[in-house]
């Protein structure tokens, strides 16, 4: 009898991958806080996550060879520009306090997903051991 890890772990590995990508985007925003004309970017986690789940479940059909499939669609997520609350004179749209808050929120959500995966693996180990 084999273990189906996709079923056992659910959506959490996909969430981890997406949270990791969002971390990189937010870190790039923070790193470029003083770069003139830099535009802060982010991705809409909810819509990209739903799209990746639909791709993984096969709800969407690939009708053309050039269309992206599940894992590629996740990595090719469309980045959105963040609208600043207060415009900068040098054209930079990074607001450090907003980016830090978004980064911290994403980090907490990443840790939650990581905990879910860890708990899932612990449950699998218990099942294998017969506990």
UniProtKB/TrEMBL annotation:
Domain called Flagellar basal body rod protein N-terminal: residue spans: 12-39
Highest taxon of the lineage: Bacteria
Keyword line: Bacterial flagellum, Cell projection, Cilium, Flagellum
Any one Gene Ontology BP term: bacterial-type flagellum-dependent swarming motility
Places the protein is found: Bacterial flagellum basal body
Any one annotated GO CC term: bacterial-type flagellum basal body, rod
Short name of any one Pfam family annotated for the protein: Flg_bb_rod
Keyword Transcription: no
NCBIfam families for this protein: FlgB
Subunit structure: The basal body constitutes a major portion of the flagellar organelle and consists of a number of rings mounted on a central rod.
Similarity comment: Belongs to the flagella basal body rod proteins family.
Role description: Structural component of flagellum, the bacterial motility apparatus. Part of the rod structure of flagellar basal body.
Name of the protein this chain belongs to: Flagellar basal body rod protein FlgB
Source species: Methylomonas koyamae
């Amino acid at each position: 009898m084999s273990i189906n890890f996709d079923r056992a772990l659910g959506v959490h590995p996909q969430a981890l991958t997406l949270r990791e990508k969002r971390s990189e985007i937010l870190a790039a925003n923070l790193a470029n806080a003083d770069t003139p004309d830099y535009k802060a970017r982010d991705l809409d986690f909810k819509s990209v996550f739903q799209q990746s789940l639909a791709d993984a479940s096969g709800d969407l059909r690939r009708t053309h060879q050039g269309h992206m499939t599940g894992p590629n669609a996740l990595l090719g997520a469309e980045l959105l520009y963040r609208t600043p609350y207060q415009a900068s004179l040098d054209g930079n749209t990074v607001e450090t306090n907003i980016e830090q808050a978004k980064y911290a929120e994403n980090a907490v959500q990443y840790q939650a997903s990581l905990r879910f995966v860890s708990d899932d693996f612990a449950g699998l180990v218990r099942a294998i051991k017969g506990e």
